[in-house]
Design goal:
It is a single chain. This protein has eight helices and eight strands; from the N terminus they run βαβααβααββααβββα. By secondary structure, it is an alpha/beta fold. It has a single domain (about 5-230), classed as Rossmann fold (3-Layer(aba) Sandwich), CATH 3.40.50. The strands form two sheets. The protein has a six-stranded mixed beta sheet with strand order 2-1-3-4-8-7.
């Protein structure tokens, strides 16, 4: 059977209380989308509110916007998907083998405490599906509780955008919380690379997480390998 991927993207276009723009880090979606497309997986895109997912301007910069990003950015049909994302209530979690949380700083506001996404994530995980994220996407995992009321990430190895990377990116004073610290407080075994902004993927069973924007493609490849191994 064809595998199905549920991508989660943000609706937030500015840092709360600031005029500083943010949004979806486009490459974190397109790099994964490319890899899943190679295997003819069915892919859907959901955001907390449905509708438009704004793009983080920095993700279109000339040093980070590679062929994958530019191809999708210039593809009207793909961009239409980001203008018309589905709401969580419009999908059935049972249809999906993977939930994949993308990043961009916007997710720090609308992923952390979304009950609909938390329920979908819990159900996919407990069904044996893959729960995954890249970069700030792990904010969507931090407060997910399983049926036993334990945090999904408790006792699990994971990664996500590191606090040192927030500092180096110059936004440490703009973000609403320290996601790395919060992951550790939830009992996760947080792991990062020694050198910031280098690819890093951590797998713990069917929890697969990537550290930063440069980890998206290898995160997707790890997901594909896990799916193919279990097919």
């Amino acid at each position: 059977m064809t595998k199905r991927i549920l991508h989660i993207v943000t609706n937030i276009d500015k840092y709360k209380g600031l005029k500083y723009p943010t949004g979806l880090w486009l490459g974190e979606l397109t790099h994964a989308y490319d890899e899943f497309e190679k295997h003819d997986y069915i892919q859907d895109i959901v955001s907390p509110l449905g509708g438009r997912s704004p793009i983080e301007p920095k993700s279109l910069g000339r040093f980070v916007a590679d062929k994958s990003v530019l191809k999708r950015k210039n593809d009207p049909s793909f961009m239409k998907l980001l203008e018309n994302t589905k709401k969580p209530s419009e999908i059935n979690w049972q249809d999906y083998d993977v939930i994949y949380y993308t990043g961009g700083h916007g997710v720090m506001w609308d992923f952390l405490d979304n009950p609909d996404l938390q329920e979908i994530t819990k159900n996919i995980y407990e069904k044996g599906g893959i729960v995954s994220s890249v970069c700030h996407g792990y904010c969507g995992l931090l407060n997910v509780r399983l049926s036993n009321n334990k945090y999904l990430i408790q006792g699990k190895k994971l990664t996500g955008f590191a606090w040192c990377e927030e500092v180096l990116a110059g936004v440490a004073k703009k973000v609403p919380y320290n996601a790395e610290k919060l992951a550790k407080e939830r009992g996760a075994n947080y792991q990062r690379t020694f050198i910031p902004f280098t690819p890093n993927v951590v797998q713990d069973g069917h929890l697969i997480t990537g550290q930063n924007p440069f980890s998206a493609r290898v995160t997707a490849k790890t997901i594909v390998a896990a799916l193919e191994e279990n097919s």
